[in-house]
Amino acid sequence: MSPKATEAAQVEAFTDGACSGNPGPGGWGPVLPFQCEPHTTNNRMELMGAIAALEALKRPSTVAITTDSTYVKDGITKWVHAWKKRGWQTADKKPVKNQDLWERLDALCRKHQVAWHWVRGHDGHAENERADALAREAIRIQREARKSDGN
Fold it and tell me: Which of 14, 62, 103, 127 is the most buried (most CB within 10 A)?
């Protein structure tokens, strides 16, 4: 479910920029810990993490995506081609779950050159732990908003 067009989403953005020398080489880092769905599944949210990363890119890029989801990695690197050939059906002729998101991710992977890497979740990989913390923060923000709305 998405918010109604008339409802404004509340988003917190955390940004920083740095330069070594001025001028000199520099970098920036935005963090947007708000993206949530009120009723969903873990697999859909794992897919949305990858989709959001690729959708944030403004031009075709070579991208390395690290995920702790074998569902996402295997789905996009192994299973999606057969699903498309079978008209988005599994080998046992059932509809592919999350087809809408798989189609989005597949289209994005055709736009970019993507290398997929898997790491074990909750195993100390700093960036994966940060991504998990952001996802959990989005859940916390959503729960607080729902409590304040009386839902």
Answer: 103
